[in-house]
Amino acid sequence: MKYISITHKKYKYKLLQLEFFTIPKPKLLKPIKEEYFTFDEKTLDLNILEGYSWDGASGPAIDTQNFMRGSLLHDCLYQLIRDGYITPLYRKIADTLLRKICREDGMSFIRAAWVYLGVRMFGWRAIKI
């Protein structure tokens, strides 16, 4: 995954190439039509396009290489919830995917468990509309 650090009030990173994730089927509340991501309902691929910006790890969490892809997908899914594309009930799936991807990218079991616990306890703040 290629990204750069940026200086912006709201975001820390900008994606430099397409990233896609196959995700469990969300209940779409409306078709996803956004500048920086698309969703294919047949393949269940969420495509996050070049130029998408996100804030990486939140709270006391530290941005490390094994956190970047997970935080990218997690931030995108939370944005889809905030923007009314998918139901807030998808939040638990988003949190589980964060943990799964961080583990796939080499994060220790204990750190990934702490990350998951943190988003389960405090993530609701990030999807409040």
Describe this structure in words.
By secondary structure, the chain is an alpha+beta fold. It is 39% helix and 16% strand. It has four helices and six strands, in the order ββββββαααα. The protein has helices at 65-82, 91-104, 109-122, 124-127, and strands at residues 3-5, 13-15, 19-22, 37-40, 45-48, 53-54. Strand 1 and strand 2 (13-15) form a beta hairpin. The N and C termini lie far apart (30 Å).
- Strand percentage lies at 15-25%
**How are strands sequenced across the largest beta sheet?**
1-2-6
Oligomer: single chain
- Average pLDDT confidence is 91
Q: What Rg do the Cα atoms give?
A: 14 Å
Compressed to H and E, one letter per element, the order equals EEEEEEHHHH
Low-confidence sequence ranges: none
Counted by DSSP, the helix tally is: 4
The helicity comes to 25-40%
Class from secondary-structure proportions: alpha+beta
Sum up the overall morphology in one term. Answer: globular
Annotation keywords:
three-stranded antiparallel beta sheet, 129 residues, alpha+beta
Note the topology.
Elements: E1 3-5, E2 13-15, E3 19-22, E4 37-40, E5 45-48, E6 53-54, H1 65-82, H2 91-104, H3 109-122, H4 124-127
Antiparallel strand pairs: 1-2, 2-6, 3-5, 4-5
Helix pairs in contact: 1-2, 2-3
Would you summarize the structure shown here?
With 129 residues, the chain is an alpha+beta fold.
